[in-house]
UniProtKB/TrEMBL annotation:
Gene3D superfamilies: Luciferase-like domain. The keyword Cell cycle does not apply. This is LLM class flavin-dependent oxidoreductase. It comes from the Bacteria. Its EC number is 1.-.-.-. The lineage of its organism: Bacteria, Pseudomonadati, Bacteroidota, Cytophagia, Cytophagales. It comes from Hymenobacter aranciens. NCBIfam families: oxido_grp_1. Residues 9-251 form the Luciferase-like domain. To bacterial alkanal monooxygenase alpha and beta chains. It is an enzyme of class 1 (oxidoreductase).
Amino acid sequence: MPATSPVTFSVLDLAPIAAGTTPADTFRKSLDLAQHVEKLGYTRYWLSEHHNMVSVASAAPVVLIGYIAGGTSTLRVGSGGIMLPNHAPLVVAEQLGTLASLYPGRIDLGLGRAPGTDQATAAAIRGGRFGNPHDFPRDIQQLQAYFSSDNSSSIVRAIPGEGLEVPIWILGSSTDSAHLAASLGLPYAFASHFAPGQLLPALDIYRRNFRPSATLAEPYVLACVNVVGADTDAQAEHLSTSLKQFMLGVVKGKPAPLPPPVDSMDGLWDYAQQQYVEQMLAYSFIGGPATLAHELQQFLELTQADELMAVTNVFSHEARVHSYEVLAEVLRGLPKPVEQLAV
C-alpha cells in the first residue's frame, strides 16, 4: 500500500443512534471508530452539534471531543461544528481552550451559523437571547481575540484559551459562508453531504475572494461527503439503504433512529420523495473499491479539495468501520489531480 494519499482524509461523526440502541451505545461506537481510523491514517475526527433529534446523539460536541481526544493520541479532534448562535463566544473560547490545554495541538474549532435544530428548540437553548440579532462575523472575531495573546490586557479574558490560537474553521452549506471564510482568511469546510447544490459556486467564491491572513496564506477547502464503502458495489448499495431511509424520514418530517438496511427502497418512497432524497445525497459515494476510486477521483478533480471528510451512516458498526478501511485504501491509491476544472 502506498504510504501517502493525494488528499488529506478525515471523518465527520454525526453520532447516529441506530434503531434498538441508546446514545451510550453510540458513544462507545464513536470511540471505537476513532481508534480504528487513527490507525488508518485519518487526520481529523469531527463531531457535529444537533439538538432534539431522536436519531442523533451529538447534542454536546464539546463533551464528545474530550471523550474522543482522551481515547486517541494523534487524531485532530474537533467540532463540525459548534453552532455559534447557540453559544456565547467567551464560553466557547473557555471550553475549547480547556480542551486545547488538555490535548495540545489536536483540537479544531469548526463554526456554523445554523441552529442545528428547529426554531422551538433553538429558543429553548438561547433563552432570552432568542430573537436578538446575531452577528456571526463579529462573534468569530471575538473568538479569535479571546484565543490571542494580545487579549491579555482586556477586561474579559478566556482562561484557559488565551494564547492558544485554537484553529478556527468556517463551516457552510451556502455561498454566504464562502464570502465570510474568504474575507477572514480562514479554512473553509463545506457540507456537501447534505447541501450539494451550492458546493461549486461556494468554492469558486471562496477561492476568488480569499484574503491571506496570519492564519492561512492560501485558500484551504475541506469537502464533506457521504461514503459507503464495501467489498462490492452490491454490498455497499445494500448498506446505503439505511442512509436513504434516514434521509427519507427527514424529508417526510418523521425522523427516526437509523434503520437497518432493506433489500429495496421500492414501496418506501414515492417518486417525488426519491428525487428529493437523491438530490440531497448527490455527493454520496457508494460502492466497492473500483467504483469509489473512479468517482472520488472525478470529484477531487472537479473540486480540487485539499481535504475530504467522509460521513458514513450505516446500521452495522462493523460495516461502518470497514467502510472507512476501504476508503483509506482507495484514497491512498489515487493519483494526484493534474488539472483543476472550472467551477
